[in-house]
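Recap quiz, item 2
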Amino acid sequence: MTWLPTPYRVVTRTVETHDSATLVLRPVAESLPTFRPGQFAMLYAHGVGEVPISVSGIPGDGTLVHTIRAVGAVSRALHDAAQGTVLGARGPFGTAWRLDDVEDLLVVAGGIGLAPLRPVLTHPARRTVLVAGARTPQDLLYEKEIVSLSDVEAVLTVDRGDHDWHGRIGFVTEPLASVPLDPACTTALLCGPEPMMRFCARTLLGRGVPAGRIQVSLERNMQCGVGLCGHCQLGPMLLCREGPVVPYPVAEPLLLAKEL
Amino acid sequence: MTTPMTKLDVLPLLARLTHSQRAAVAGVSRIETYEAGTRLFEEGGLADQCWVILAGCVMVDTQVPGRGRVVLQSIGPGELLGWSWLLPPYQWHFGATVVSPTRAVVVDTQALRMLADEDPALGYQLSQILLEALLNRLQATRIRLLDLYRNPA
């Protein structure tokens, strides 16, 4: 029943950055249906509130994996939830990354936008390239895990480096403009701040990646999760149902709208 | 001083040049390799070369009192390093250090300017290449100013 939160207990909490943590949640009794990469759950911190959080891992054992950035009261409460805490979860909601017929996979992420893309990094592909940006090296999610993925060619770039940083410094569009690609065979998945996705999509279009092979993940104020309340409306779309993953040709005019 | 044409023919940066134009560029350039830690140029020094990175990484930096050498930008494979040679006074605005073993096409920019002066068609194509690189760099820098990844909390 999508309206009632299903109880889940925090079994592990891993600090990722100064403001982000990954929770592994195990069902107290019944579990929710299996999520697909890109979909989200409504996570409920008892007595505080409920927010949409994408899955950042799909172990397949009934547990939920979410990486949460503390930006408001609810996300702070979820982020701070200690091992043993019982939270509520509803879902799965929304559209997933379309991974049919993937040849080369290009994953482009900015900041916390890497979380919904983490499950696709292990999706079978002829070649997988990850271009991920963050504010500083300390803000990069899953850095050790990414480096350990031998099948993923990772380009990590930060806005501001430090003396210990030996990766790239600059915006994600820069490596994206020069990373070797076979454009016609590339499926590009983008998640991050909307201007970032806009600029990255333009770079990819300029390199010959067909618009229909670019997908973006859009975020609005999802509340009911089932397309009834209208809080997540973006133009003609209700993103909790028709998003968050949207083909770029559909998203492009919405990303350019001043205010809706 | 020559760069093998096979190296230049596969560079997307030079794709808009004809084969003969690339041959002209090959004549005023060479391939060099650098160890990590190599200082390529210093702020204020004579800007008489530019690099197209084939492999590795170079950091562009500047000296800031109290903070030491602050890195502004990294330049990776396929990208252009250095444009202070384009206009007088031909002095580097920043410094640059190799941070991982790097291979690059090094161009004698004084000779390149002479080639462009003698052959306006080549000069025009080179200016388009440089303008595109500059524009991409400017736009990326502007986007970084937005601080898009900041926590809105």
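The longest strand of chain B covers residues 49-64.
Chain B has one domain: 4-148.
End of item.
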